[in-house]
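Notes from the 1:1 (GR / supervisor)

We went over the backlog. Supervisor wanted to see one worked example end to end before approving the batch request, so GR pasted a single chain during the call. The sequence is below; no edits were made to it. Supervisor asked that the structure be written out right there so they could see what the output format looks like.
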Amino acid sequence: LTLFQIKHTLERLTGPPGSAIVSAAEKQNADLVIVGSRGHGTVRRTIMGSVSDYVVHHAHVPVMICKHEDEHHKLQS
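Structure output shown during the call:
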């Protein structure tokens, strides 16, 4: 059994969510950003924008997107 020493930070951010996450990742020299996906449809995501999409395209480190359980079930249908 290998134990990993993962350094993490929990911080309350203000401002537009996508840019706030990218800025915080840069400021803290993050190695990875993990964001969630609420599973909005294509039309709604296009109109409202997607925080996870913004982070993927603007972050300078790898980004892991954890899909909402409902979105996972749609893919299996």
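Supervisor's comment: DSSP finds four helices and two strands in the chain.
Batch request approved.
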